[in-house]
Each structure stands twice: as C-alpha cells, then as structure tokens.
C-alpha cells in the first residue's frame, strides 16, 4: 500500500492518549494539534529549497529557504478542521481552503455540499487533512474535486486509517501519498475504524 505510517514515539504516545474514551474534548484537540505539527514536519520534508544570501551580525553567508510552489491546506469538513492549527503553526503563510463532504449513512458514499479553495490552485502544493480515513470515499472525492479545480500536487494526511480506506485512495489516486499516524485493523459493519478512536468530529467539538 502507498501509505507512510509515522512511527515516532511521541506520535504513537499521543495517539494512544487520543484513543482513550476518557480523554475529553479539550485534551483531544490539543493532542491533535501536537500530532499534526509532528506529522507536518515529515510531510513537508520534500519541500524544495533555494540559496539565499543573508547578513548575520558577523558576516554575509548563503543559507537555504523554501522555494517553488506555495502550500495549501484543505481540511475535509468538519473533522479535518482539527488538523489546521497544527499545520499553520508549522507553515503560517499557507492558505486554507475547505471541502465539505458528509458520508451518507445508508450508502456510506460521500456527498459534497461545500467547496472554497485558494484562487491560485495550480500554483500550490496541497495537503488534505482528515483525522479518519475509513472507507476512503470522502478523501477520494475531495482529491478528485481538487484535481478538477487544477491541483497537481496533493498529499493526504490522516490520524488513523483503515486498510480499506488506504486501498480505495490508492486505487482512485495512485499518485497521492498518504501519511498516517496509525494504520488500524479494519472497518466494522457500520464503516467505523477498529480499534479507532470513535467519531473524531464529535470528540473534537464535544458533540454527540
């Protein structure tokens, strides 16, 4: 499978805390921010660099700065919003778009209801965020939508994924790299990830 599983001890520790049903919304959000920032460090490893001359207090030197395309962060509403702050801590100049999709409870298929993207879609590297990659339907639909709008370089960042979701995204978008903090066992009969961590949106925003 085309998926990068983050095995850093801090990430694994924090994911375990998030799985605990006794972790409240405040701590859940904070942990998600922290994990996103740690994952963002790895997901941005391939950003291109260019030489730039700077004047230090002592002398001139040639250093490195990020070059090439700008970054766009695209949370899949609503749970994907929980990963935006962590990414903006890392890349404060990134533009944030939004894609609204919900999963039809009967068919488990994604239904689009909102899309707002930066105007310069073709000039940005996009990171799509969604804590849960279950069936892969919503993520695949969001990526398809971005491509239809002109996006050419897209990565998908999730907290917890099921093998079924990874397989679906791989099948629909083999060019998209997937980054996850945990690859879980499977989906249950209702399309929820096992062992998972429950409904990420509800746990982020304190709803039922």
Q: Can you walk through the features of this model?
A:
- The protein is of the alpha/beta class and 208 residues long.
- It has 6 helices and 13 strands.
- Strands 1, 4, 5, 6, 7, 8, 9, 10 and 11 form a 9-stranded mixed β-sheet that branches. Strands 2-3 form a two-stranded antiparallel ribbon. A two-stranded antiparallel ribbon has the order 12-13.
- Helix 4 links the parallel strand 9 and strand 10.
- Helix 2 crosses helix 3.
- The longest helix is centred in the N-terminal third of the chain and has 19 residues.
- The protein starts with a strand and ends with a helix.
- The model has no long low-confidence stretch (mean pLDDT 93).
- Its cofactor is Mg(2+).
Radius of gyration over all CA atoms, rounded = 18 Å
The major beta sheet can be summarized as: 9 strands, mixed
- Helix/strand/pairing class, anyone? alpha/beta
Average pLDDT, rounded to a whole number, is 93
Strand content: 25-35%
- The oligomerization state is single chain
State the order of secondary-structure elements, H for helix, E for strand. EHHEEEHEEEEEHEHEEEH
Q: What form results from the Cα inertia axes?
A: globular
Individual helix count: 6
Unreliable stretches covering 5 or more consecutive residues:
none
Fraction of residues in H or I helices: 25-40%
End-to-end Cα distance, whole Å, is 33 Å
Find the count of extended strands (DSSP E, 2+ residues).
13
């Amino acid at each position: 499978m085309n998926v990068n599983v983050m095995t850093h001890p801090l990430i694994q520790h924090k994911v375990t805390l998030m799985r605990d049903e006794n972790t409240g919304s405040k701590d859940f959000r904070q942990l998600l921010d922290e994990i996103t920032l740690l994952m963002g460090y790895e997901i941005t490893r391939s950003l291109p660099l260019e030489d730039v001359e700077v004047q230090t207090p002592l002398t001139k030197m040639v250093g490195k700065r990020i070059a090439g395309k700008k970054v766009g962060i695209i949370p899949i509403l609503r749970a994907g919003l929980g990963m935006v702050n962590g990414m903006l801590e890392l890349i404060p100049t990134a533009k944030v778009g939004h894609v609204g999709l919900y999963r039809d409870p009967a068919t488990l298929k994604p239904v689009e209801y909102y899309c707002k993207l930066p105007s310069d879609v073709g000039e940005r590297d996009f990171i799509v965020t969604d804590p849960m990659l279950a069936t892969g339907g919503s993520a695949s639909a969001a990526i398809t939508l971005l491509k239809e709008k002109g996006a050419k370089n897209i990565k998908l960042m999730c907290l917890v994924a099921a093998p079924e979701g990874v397989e679906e995204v791989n099948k629909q978008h083999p060019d998209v790299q997937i980054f996850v903090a945990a690859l879980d066992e499977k989906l249950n009969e209702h399309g929820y990830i096992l062992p998972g961590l429950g409904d990420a949106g509800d746990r982020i925003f304190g709803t039922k």
